[in-house]
Every structure is written in C-alpha cells, then in structure tokens.
Design brief:
By secondary structure, this protein is an alpha/beta fold. It has nine helices and six strands; from the N terminus they run βαβαβαααααβαβαβ. It has a six-stranded parallel β-sheet with strand order 1-2-3-4-5-6.
Amino acid sequence: MVLSDRAIVYLHGFPGGPSELQLFGRPPAALNGTFAPDRANDRPDLDAVAYADDLAGRVQAYADNRPVHLIGFSLGARTALELAGRIGPEVAQIDLISPAGPLDGSDHINAMAGRAIFSMAAARPKLFRLHSAMQGWFARRCPGLLYRALFADGSESMARNAEFRRTMEGILKQCFANGSAGYRREILAYVGPWSSLPTRVKTPTIIWQGGRDSWTPPIMSERLATLLPNAERHLLPELGHYGALQHALHAICDQRQLQIPRSPHDHSR
C-alpha cells in the first residue's frame, strides 16, 4: 500500500496549528490533501470528550472508506490515540512525533520545559485560564515575545532560523486567533489521567523521538512505547522537538516506512 491510498490526518501540537506542515518549507508532495484540523479554533463550544467524538466522525467522513493514517505531533499524540480508540480497525498506522506522553503515574512533568504551565493547569485551573488568556493576548499582538519565551532554553537549534521563526510566529498568532478556549481544552485534557488510553490502541505505531528534546523529553516516549501494545520507537539522538518533526515527516513519506515490524523494539538513527 502506498501513502496516496491512505487518508492522512495530521494532529498539531500546542501552541501550534496545521501550518506546522509548512515549518520547513514546502511539505513533501505525499502530504498533499492531508486533513489537518485546526484544533485550537475548531468547535471551542465542545468539551474534550464531545470534541473527540465530533472529530472522529469528520475523520471517517474524510477517509471515505480509505485506511486512516494518523500523525500526531507533541500534544497531538494524545488526540491521535483518542481518535484511534474511536475509529478502531479503520486506522492502518499511527506515527507519533515528539509525543507528549501521559503524566499520570510518572514524574515526567519535572523533566519538561513547559512544566510550569502543565503544573498550573493541573493544580490551579482558574489561574491557568487567566494565564492562557494572557498568552493569547501576547500571541495576537506580540507573537515574537511568546516565541522567545517558548524557545528560551536554547535546546531547539531550529529556533535560530529566520524562516522557521517567521512561520512559527504566524502559527502562534493563529493558535489564539479566536481566544484561548481550544488551547485550554487541549491542555486540561492532557494533564488529566489518560495512561490507560495507549494500552487499548493495538494499531501499529511508530514513535519518533529527538534525543535533545526538552519539551517532550525522551523518557516520556520511552514509557509511551511500553504502554502501547504494538509500537516501535526511533530515537534521533542529535535532534530536538522540531528537528524530529522535520525528519519524521520526510521519513513517513518514504514508501519503505509503510511496512513496520509488529514486534516492539527501539532503534537509534
């Protein structure tokens, strides 16, 4: 089976958006026609469960009986697994890139660059609501300030690229274009308990993990690989969060990547 025979669904990170596919210039031709819902601005009236149900229905309508191929980046990993659980055997493959794994049952939050935000969302949701509104204000009016704050630790080498920065600032602005409701929905769902979700997803899954990722550190994807019944993890030692995204998108479009082993093990590339 070739990639063009599949219904490809891209699930972006947060803060983020569908334009992540253009972060590195023109995306591979095999990704043309990809369904990439803007979850930050899509149906903010729905709670997390209702939204996942609604999105699953739209993915199935888009697929139109074709096998579904889910690609989840960063916080989009949880959404990919939610969709896989709802759509079931129609999902042929899942690729999780720089995945933000479940926090419940672990202390991985302490290793994350965004731990302050996630801790606030989990422990003080009202304060998080105020903070996310402020994030949205800065993103709409001064996206450069939010960009500098997000990449302040210097771990992402791509952050120094002018074109990457220009595109990413546009993504940040669009993420909060209609307020912060969609952003809050995603973050609050992420910090809640969901470690049982991966255990129910038997779809063949590849995890792409940058060894220098401080946003979703390698220890998170290592655990996620053990929770998923049918996963293979590719460690990319020299890459960060977005470097892994660039590498993985091109690798996924390589037809040789469509046949993945059914026995779980870890690879370094």
